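Annex B. Sample input.
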Amino acid sequence: MKMTLRTHRRRAAFTLIEIMVVVVILGILAATIVPQFIGMTHDAKLSAAKSQISEIESALERLAIHLDRYPSSDEGLNLLVEAPPGDDKKWRGPYLKQVRNDPWGNPYQYRAPGVRHPNSFDVWSRGADGADGGEGQNADIGNW
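Annex B, continued. Sample output.
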């Protein structure tokens, strides 16, 4: 009886070869699946930036209705969360809870009058590289 218990216990464990086969299979699966998801991080950040720019744009339009003007480039996006001195009676904000950074951690850029929208404003993120211009993942994302 003792022999059968010992034999049974030995057979219950995995051999090194069995573990190696499982590791190799997991490696092959990871090598085929992971590359499909690598570009998704950039796509998610791009979608988040577009959504946040749209939110900022809507807030600026609401502010312009109340103040009869867009914030100057010097006032910037902070006018969406803090009342301007002198116009505080017309200001009905805050229009945003806070002005967030873009998904890459850089502040959104604002210019009024805009280069691309001379009658209103430009709002944009400088993209992954944090610099104006760029192509691909480093391209600017704006309200244009």
